[in-house]
Structures are given as C-alpha cells and as structure tokens.
C-alpha cells in the first residue's frame, strides 16, 4: 500500500514516514500544501494522511480539491480538538480525523480501517479459501498454519485480496507498492509473485497475460 503524508512539522513527518515504512507501507511525503495537493492529485494513493495547518495551502483546501477529482481515503490530523473542526473535516469528505498528539498504533489502525472501507471490506481478516490474511497483524495463515512472507510479498497479497476478483495491472501494482524514491525493476513483481506461490498456493494469484494479476 502506498501512502502520502502531508505534514509541515519535520520531526513528526520523519517519525510517521519511518514508522509507516516499518509497517510495510510505501510512503511519499510533502511538507507544504501546494506540494501535497500536487502529489495527491497526480498519484492514486491508497490513503492520504493530511495535516490541517500547512504553509501555502491548508488541509481543508487540499481536501476540497482532492474530493473534486478523487475518492482517495483521507485521514486528517490536527492539533485542535474542536468539534467544529471534526465536523468540518468529515463533512468536507475526510474519512477519519485524529487529534495530535496520538499513539502510532491508533494511527496504524485508522489507516488500515479507511483503506478497508474504501475497498468495500469492513472485516480486518480477508479469507481466500484456506488462506487467511490478518490486516491488523499483517500476518498470513494457510490451513491454520502461519506462513512467513516478506514485507513486499505481504503487500502484494493484501492488495490483491482487498481487490479480489479485479485484474490489477503491473503498473498499478508498482504504483501502489513502491514510493517515489524507490527504483523498480521490470521483473521484480514476477520474483515476488513466484515467492508467494511457492510459500502459499500456486493458484492463489492468477496471471492474466497482457493484463495483470488477480486473486479470484
């Protein structure tokens, strides 16, 4: 999953981006409103973590522009614990709202929840036959036994399971699994998919030649 964090406090931005990368997310960042709006509109992120108070353009305006074009899940951050702000954000199209300071575990849980809701999946566990994906713990079991996947392998399985039945192109997977600073290789997905099939089931991920991958 690929996230965008728009936050003007450098220390908090570093903390959030590091923690979310350690959780297995690809993370892009922006410190100013104009940059945040440009990135949010130009890339199909799985979620945007958006601070309200930003230099140049505030979070409300970014949210307004984004909602005019996209339904990307948005989690608003603010230092103001005012009901009017929460109502303004939610009525403006934000999917959730978090008041600073907050615990990282709560941030992680809220991000997972808005991504699931956007994909039409309310339950934190995704089940595909005898394969169970726990999106809270980022764990996978097959026939009741834990299976160890790399962070990238897990991200592929989770993304395809969240969009079960849809053919996801290679370019979509690259866009959702790698951030703007990562180099990508043309056969990298093939390597990861091969690893998933070896550890889980050979038929779990179906290849549609010329189209992409899917979990049926």
From TrEMBL:
Gene Ontology molecular function, alphabetical: phosphorelay response regulator activity; transcription cis-regulatory region binding
Gene Ontology CC annotation, any one: protein-DNA complex
Annotated ranges, domain OmpR/PhoB-type: 123-216
Biological processes, Gene Ontology terms: regulation of DNA-templated transcription
UniProt xrefs under InterPro entries: CheY-like_superfamily, OmpR/PhoB-type_DNA-bd, Sig_transdc_resp-reg_receiver, WalR-like, WH-like_DNA-bd_sf
Annotated keywords: DNA-binding, Phosphoprotein, Transcription, Transcription regulation, Two-component regulatory system
Location of the DNA-binding region in this protein: 123-216
Modification type 4-aspartylphosphate: residues: 51
One matching Pfam family: Response_reg
Domain Response regulatory: 2-115
CDD domains linked: trans_reg_C
Domain of life where this protein originates: Bacteria
Name of protein: Response regulator transcription factor
